[in-house]
Amino acid sequence: MTVDPEMTVELEWENAMSSISPRETAADLAAVATLLEMADRLGIVPLLERGEPVTSAELAVAADVPEEGMDGFLATLVAAALVVPTGVKEFRVAEDFADRIHDSGYLTWSLRANQPYVQNPAAFLRDPAAAGAQFRRNGREVAVSSRWIGSQGFYPAATEAILAARPKHIVDLGAGAAGLLIDLLGRLPESTGVALDMSAGACQEAARAARDAGVGERLTVVERPIQSIADDPGPVAGADVIHAGFVFHDIVLEGDVFDRVLRQCREALRPGGIMAITDAVPYASAERERRFSALFTYLHAGFMNVTLPPEEDWLARFRQAGFEQAECVPHRFPGGRLFIATK
């Protein structure tokens, strides 16, 4: 029996939506997203995400704030059902914390990471080039919110595909805060990885997160744009898997560079290696996808000068780069697709 990937994703989405309380409101989502962003700004989300009991004193040290101040913040998180007490001044996250992180990612990405665009639409409509030079997104905010979305929106499919390849060396292009790569290295204790990103803030966050997760010695962080691979493929050399998450669309208009990067990646892969590109198609029409996909497509086209290629164009680029085969798997992330090409 053949399983339709689209139907599988639709069923997963319906199951996920059925778990949401009918009393959940926009006010609930806004409050949770705001509190979690505050926790992220305090630098305590990684400690909470471990799922183990942690004391207010430990969190206060991590945040470099007075313990009494942290006590007040934790009392608020308890009231909001984001953490639960496990002892005297000891807490652990609620069972649905991972779901809350994922849901909040959409709000923080849309309204916080893209705030320069949301606040200045008229400037972009009048003169996109000038506005783009003046109003820029914060790389760290983009990286963190993308990781939160990806935790359930697109990392699971990519993780499954990468683990199935049993890689010894993984390269993630446009790794952001390296959430996917850090998780993979935790599951593959004998493997090494390279996280490449052009944002200094994202690279700093990736290095910190890797140290906190105990994989810092096996992860190399490289601060470079993906376009640099076209002329210097050093960071991808000898990879069993090369992953790229939502970065290839940034160079789609640089046709020659786009194709050269793909070819360099194919050449750098070990025999039988795979390239897995997580990206998006424009204006996905399925009911579960259409609204966020519309926003995602418009933000990229109107504010970032990025034209998202349709699915058939992605597959054609892989063939032109010399990959033997390529396939497309839909993500839970609205409009997201995982393209897997084999050397």
Automatic annotation (TrEMBL):
Coiled coil: none annotated. One of its GO terms (molecular function) is methyltransferase activity. One of its GO terms (biological process) is methylation. CDD domains: AdoMet_MTases. Residues 171-274 form the Methyltransferase type domain. InterPro entries: Methyltransf_12 (IPR013217), SAM-dependent_MTases_sf (IPR029063). Keywords: Methyltransferase, Transferase. It comes from the Bacteria. The keyword Methyltransferase applies. The keyword Transferase applies. SUPFAM superfamilies: S-adenosyl-L-methionine-dependent methyltransferases (SSF53335). This is Methyltransferase type 12. It comes from Streptomyces showdoensis.
